[in-house]
């Protein structure tokens, strides 16, 4: 657990003004509590994707980017709001948005 | 708990057909197909009680990929086959998918007469303003002045408005949506399927490969943005002047009326005639006249 906190403290947080101190109750923990349960995972099925660019252009938060071949990818997955606008506008049924729960498995693997 | 998109992909598509589908990258047909599948999934209709008929064209490829009872018919005759299916088994919910050329040019007569007869069929008409599959010839919905392979100096004829045509022809439910407003399209198609009577959903779609490229409308993304900018809801359109409504189109429900369905009336009259015939035969037997059949 201590390792996890240390690791999160080392990660660059979105807002630099907040002091990343878990005891004071701001910084990572506030944002994490807010985001808890509302994280989303976007997966692209590249076998069916035709790289039309609709998902990247219609994303309201502009988090879907295109690689040189035009295929979509996401760098900052935590910013996804889960609106599924890309899912209903994908003509090729190649996008799935799933709710992502806390990264329990990943943290246990690391420990 | 599976996502809706996963259920649609795993249960409603025919994976033995070659996926990805044949439509161009960014084509609106895929979005309409997704909206149709979501609408039928939300209505909790089983796959066996839906029949999907289509004609020829890009939209005619749609029944190939969907795992309903499907029939891929001749050009413009999607509604005629659908009428036959509905007469044979009225419990099925019959959906007919057509393109703009399929519905208003080759099958134009079938379309207006199906609307006049008021048969309980849902017609989804994908309007991309051109004959996309055959190489971009002008269709009845090509706007005045726009270029195509058969009108290189600009089109000299004026366009049909499919939804208004259906309202005038007497359809009981008429709606218009675009491929940009996809969730709105879900609801429209769902309402059209549940509505008793001939229901038409016109979907403004993009053909950036044949129509957009020749008229410098940009690619799929730019055409989608133009749908977003030019679409006006029915409520807003009433307050706008005709000058403001130039180059714009209304989306939403344009007509929603209740009137008797011709196929049901026909069955009622059939039953009445059978009863009358029985009465005549019984009277003859009673009077000692031999029946012809015996």
TrEMBL record, chain A:
InterPro entries per UniProt: 4Fe4S_Fe-S-bd (IPR017896), 4Fe4S_Fe_S_CS (IPR017900)
Keywords: Iron, Iron-sulfur, Metal-binding
SUPFAM superfamilies: 4Fe-4S ferredoxins
Keyword Metal-binding listed: yes
Entry keyword annotation includes Ubl conjugation: no
Segments forming domain 4Fe-4S ferredoxin-type: 40-69, 70-100
Molecular functions per Gene Ontology: iron-sulfur cluster binding; metal ion binding
Any Pfam family: Fer4_9
PROSITE patterns: 4FE4S_FER_1, 4FE4S_FER_2
Annotated region described as Disordered, given as residue ranges: 1-29
Protein known as: 4Fe-4S binding protein
Organism: Candidatus Desulfatifera sulfidica
TrEMBL record, chain B:
Keyword field: Oxidoreductase
Species annotation: Candidatus Desulfatifera sulfidica
Protein name: 2-oxoacid:ferredoxin oxidoreductase subunit beta
GO molecular function: oxidoreductase activity, acting on the aldehyde or oxo group of donors, iron-sulfur protein as acceptor; thiamine pyrophosphate binding
Lineage: Bacteria, Pseudomonadati, Thermodesulfobacteriota, Desulfobulbia, Desulfobulbales
One matching Pfam family: TPP_enzyme_C
The Thiamine pyrophosphate enzyme TPP-binding domain, residue ranges: 56-203
Membrane spanning stretches: none
GO biological process: cellular respiration; small molecule metabolic process
CDD domains in the record: TPP_OGFOR
InterPro entries for this protein: 2-oxoacid:Fd_oxidoreductase, THDP-binding, TPP_enzyme_TPP-bd
